[in-house]
Amino acid sequence: MSEQNRDARPLAPAAQRTYPTVRAVSFADVNEAWTQGLRDFRAAPAYGLVFGGIYAAGGIVVVLGATALGLGYLAYPLAAAFALIGPFAAVGLYEVSRRQEAGLSLSWHAVLGAIFNRRNVRLVWMGLITVLFFIAWICLVRVLVVIFLGTHTFPTLDDFLVALTLTSNGLLFLVLGHAVGAILSIALFSLTFVSFPLLLDRDIGVATAMLTSVHAVMASPVVAIGWAIIVVLLLMVACLPFFLGLLVVLPVLGHTTWHLYRKIVVPLARLSPRSREFPPIEIPASDS
To answer: Does any domain span residue 184?
Structure first.
């Protein structure tokens, strides 16, 4: 069978109708996924560095653009919100891990072809949802700045930091701003926990992918929250040296996310014929 035919991944009609089944995972599964993610990055570092570099460059452009427009005080909120689109930026890394897992050859043509395949247009829609959350977060920050700190501008980031830390309104802005950011982050994380790799892996709709992602969070809430905290902290720390840490952090997180997805969503081959015929999503108890 040719490489092209093997990579087409045709699905039987019954398989296409199958709703994904999720299972509970443990922190041991997360640790194993980390090991597998590091292995994938070491096996094909060029792909990780390129995708990580593109993501880092995007962050630099966003922050420099805000500074050039006199909105330097948004540098921190922009850097924090930029972590929200990390799962979308890592789609290419999911494909690299998928091909390594399947024993398929790696090439830029194959990886980019899978991402921009017409069937994967749903990935674009999922990405737009992620970007909308990013825009909503920035707009809310602007509104909160006006409410708590007034309409005057801050010439430098230092002036903004002084207003934040040495005034009561600034402290209220910090508390409420982080609370709103946390709510948006939790909502987006629940929708994207496994949805991007799932859309890349199977021919399903965006709504089904998001619903499966929410069910995955519900099946392993402690592990999911722990993973979310790890991802946010790593991405924010990686942004500190002018986003350069993303060159390594993003690819490792991307590869790890793929393997964690594999442990959460039951592969089609392991589902019984009955589960292939009936649609409800099941959340089995943990095997441990």
So the answer is: yes
* Dist. CA 169–CA 265, nearest whole Å: 45
Contact indicator for 228, 189 with CB cutoff of 8 Å: yes
Residue 191 lies inside a defined structural domain of this protein: yes
On whether residue 229 sits in a domain, the answer given is: yes
Token match 């709703």: residue?
Answer: 19
Q: Describe the crossing of helices 75-82 and 121-149 by its angle, rounded to 10 degrees.
A: 150
pLDDT at 236: 79
Q: Within a domain: residue 11? A: no
How many angstroms separate the Cα of 164 from the Cα of each of 10, 73, 184, 240?
55, 10, 21, 19
Q: What residues make up the domain containing 110? A: 26-277
Q: What angle do CA 144, 145, 150 make, to 5 degrees?
A: 120
User: What's the whole-model pTM score?
Assistant: 0.80
Most confident of 24-28, 156-160, 200-204: 24-28
Residue among 267, 271, 288 nearest 219 (CA)? 288
pLDDT at 88 (0 to 100) = 87
- Tally the domains of the chain: 1
With beta carbons less than 8 A apart as the criterion, state whether 125 and 206 touch: yes
- 13 contacts 274 by C-beta, under 8 angstroms: no
For the stretch 154-185, pLDDT in tens is: 766 677 778 888 888 888 988 888 888 888 88
Which residue bears the tokens 């999922």?
A: 126
